[in-house]
Amino acid sequence: MAGCGNRQGGTMRERAIVFTGMILLWMGVSLWGEEPPAWEKANPLRPIPKSPLGIEEELTDLDEPPTPARVRLGRWLFYDKRLSADDTISCATCHRPEFAFSEPTPVSTGIKGQKGTRKAPTIVNLAWTLFPHFFWDGRAASLEGQALGPIANPIEMGNTHEKMLERLRSIKSYARYFHEAFGSPEITLERVTKAIADYERTRLSGNSPVDRWRLAREENAVSPQVKAGYELFFGKAECNQCHFGQNFTDSRFHNLGIGWNPKTQKFADPGRFAVTKKPEDLGAFKTPGLREVAKHPPYMHDGSLQTLREVVEHYNKGGNPNPHLSPKIRKLGLTDAEISAIVAFLEALSGEGYEDTPPSAFP
């Protein structure tokens, strides 16, 4: 019986130790009596976010849902400039959170100040797409593929995939977080892009004034002008031919005449044609989503239109005529007041859920 008594006492002591350990972990203190490193404090594990009003699916319903460990790792990698050849460029250099993960410039600037030819599109709400097309020309078939491209692009991050992996492997503290995220400490290209993509999937936007008006029945959430813009968007202006669904995009490619030079009869950028080599895709670019669109002027793939009003006016005039202009583009006959109403509607698609700031410390 004495033995049983000792075992019971041992069990109680063990439970007390476990309970104390749980309290210490909750307080951010390790079982060894040490505080977690600064980079963990700057980037703690967080639950996978719930979708805001206006987004019908949940991240947990995806075939391979993000996990808190992968998202935390991906957040570090997304903001870590050490993925570039000279430690100056990260994913967030162009996909800036304060501009809804796009940028305020016509085109992106990469390593050594090199200018690209396209504006960085937003990554907001890319967990769900009607078609697996990423980049303006759709050359990537997944978010992982999109994350892969800039690292080895000579005018973006300017690195090679091999050297990027070597650099990450040389940072010993990263291994434990790859183990936490994937079950072993190996750092591979597939794991790097998976973690970045899972972080990107958590950048959600919803609960905009339009969502609160249309879905929560808050009649005062938007102005009469926004309501008029909504009717025009889905009516006279026929914007919903391409901008529809919860993200306001068909995920397809259309020629609006942007970048067409009538003198040379050429496009500055071939667009989707560079991928498919189909003549009908010449000058066609992917339809962008419209949530948070007011946060990141200028607009179009080349940043050539400075304001949302200029964008609506471009559609109103029927685009720029060229041999491959989309048949969906025609003169709309909108008045100045109607253009202003559509702009007000677009501005009312600004919501919440995507916001973030860079971690203050890294492994």
Largest sheet descriptor? 2 strands, antiparallel
Radius of gyration: 24 Å
Report the mean per-residue pLDDT as an integer.
Answer: 92
The topology string of helices and strands comes to HHHHHHHHHHEEEHEHH
Spatial arrangement of strands, main beta sheet? 1-4
Helix- and strand-based class?
mainly alpha
Assign an overall shape: globular
Provide an overview of this structure.
With 363 residues, this protein is mainly alpha-helical. It folds into 3 domains: 10-36, no CATH class; 39-201, Cytochrome Bc1 Complex, Chain D, domain 2 (Orthogonal Bundle); 209-347, Orthogonal Bundle (Cytochrome Bc1 Complex, Chain D, domain 2), CATH 1.10.760.10. It has 13 helices and 4 strands. It has helices at residues 2-26, 38-42, 68-79, 91-94, 143-152, 161-170, 174-182, 189-201, 209-214, 224-233, 273-276, 308-316, 336-347, and strands at residues 253-255, 260-261, 266-267, 284-286. The strands form 2 sheets. It has a two-stranded antiparallel sheet with strand order 1-4. Strands 2-3 form a two-stranded antiparallel ribbon. A hairpin with a 4-residue loop joins strand 2 and strand 3. The radius of gyration is 24 Å and the shape is globular. The protein starts with a helix and ends in a 16-residue tail after the last helix. 39% of the residues are buried. Residues 1-33 have low confidence and may be disordered.
